[in-house]
Structure to design on (52 residues):
């Protein structure tokens, strides 16, 4: 569990600093953060469907 928490923190850090220094609206921050997550979910679904 410690590795998972560390991985999540290391992935979230660039997005947090991006939002902090660019002063964008929170909705845009959610889009920027959500886009890679959705991409990973789609890739996982494709790989899972192929039976790999």
């Amino acid at each position: 569990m410690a590795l998972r928490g560390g991985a999540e923190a290391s992935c979230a850090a660039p997005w947090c600093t991006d939002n902090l220094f660019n002063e964008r609206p929170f909705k845009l921050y959610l889009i920027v953060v959500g886009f890679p997550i959705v991409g990973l979910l789609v890739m996982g679904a494709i790989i899972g469907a192929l039976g790999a």
Q: What stands out?
A: The mean pLDDT is 75.
